[in-house]
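Q: I have 233 residues here and want to know how they pack in 3D. Can you give me a structure?
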Amino acid sequence: MGTHSAVLPDMSTPLSSSASSGLVRSIDAASAPASLGLRHGRFEDAQALFTGSLFVSITMMLFAQAGLLTGSTAGVAFLLHYVTGLPFGAIFFVINLPFYWFAWKRMGAEFTIKTFVSVAMLALMADVGPRFIHIDYLNPLYAAVAGGLLMGSGCLFLARHHSSLGGATIVSLYLQDRYGIRAGKVQMMIDCTVVLLALAIVPFDRVAYSVLAAVIMSMFLWISHRPGRYQGN
């Protein structure tokens, strides 16, 4: 995985993941009466889910070109893509399937359906995106910083509209909703663990940049994604 062309020749990146929007409608507000939260219209939800998925797909392309990777199920999908050569988007979509049952039981139908749509859009954008954009030179430090912030912004868009990018994000948002544990903390631990497991495959310097990106994204969510911030608005 020394060069981006060898790692992800036909896809946008791993995501992490990879996995997903401080909350105009926080995940913890999802369990509160509808009257206590700020509700969004269908058009607002649609544009937020599309924009969030797009931001994360751009991060995938940056990571792919810089030879970086990410955490969560996207990171697992990236490693499987590297080992098998199968399209990242397809692997990412399939890996997330088992998590929908948990999401349906714990987070509700609306969250699960929106998450399914977001994951499907990201999977498609990740595989199709490189056909529309290419960067001739990309410093890995820049990719880590910009990618971490873009991914954090994309996940924040999704969470504010009661969605996620599946996998570990579902678990982290559930723990925030149920036990008040910041989603950013959980996501940071999961992402860094997945990235560190890639040491056997990815050069150390790329792993270090990938950890930096995971920390930046998680710190962004930790600061911005606070339970109950928008309740009562």
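Q: Anything worth noting?
A: Residues 1-37 have pLDDT under 50 and may be disordered. DSSP finds ten helices and no strands in the chain.
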